[in-house]
Specification:
4 helices; 4-stranded antiparallel beta sheet; 39% helix; 145 residues; elongated; alpha+beta; single chain
């Protein structure tokens, strides 16, 4: 599986149509599209060498990169949560609720991250955050100030 990851800089009518036309011109088959008005992931099949430089021609999209392999979206996993609860409660007990909740969050993140293949940390974090955004699992909101 090869996924192309895009950040939607400006959501507008026809953006998917234009992107599809670029794929068509380069003989690349689109197998799946996942996304929303903030991020897109496109599962493609074909020769990407001539396609990659042309992806910047679609206004409103920023090409972030290629992901080779299956995508695992960031989600609230019941399995990870239960593992984290068991670890925290076995180590601390329930009498210190604030400490338990803090430690629970730490253990949950530790268990989750242990299954994420890390390469370059900055690229990996950006890729996973963009993937989570495309799956409607994460939203960035502007704050005042």
């Amino acid at each position: 599986m090869v996924w192309l990851l895009f950040w939607v800089v400006w959501d507008r009518p026809g953006i998917i149509n234009e992107l599809s036309f670029v794929f068509l011109k380069h003989g690349v088959n689109v197998r799946n599209i996942i996304g929303n008005s903030r991020a897109l992931m496109v599962d493609v099949d074909g020769d990407l060498d001539s396609l990659i430089p042309r992806l910047g021609s679609v206004g409103g999209l920023e090409f972030l990169g290629v992901i080779n392999g299956p995508i695992v979206p960031l989600t609230f996993s019941q399995r990870h949560f239960i593992a984290a609860v068991k670890n925290v409660l076995s180590q601390m007990g329930t009498q210190h609720v604030e400490r338990v909740l803090y430690r629970l969050g730490y253990e949950y993140a530790r268990v989750l991250v242990s299954e994420i293949p890390l390469g370059d940390p900055l690229t990996t974090v950006r890729t996973y955050l963009s993937t989570a955004t495309a799956y409607n699992r994460l939203t960035f909101k502007k704050t005042g100030g």
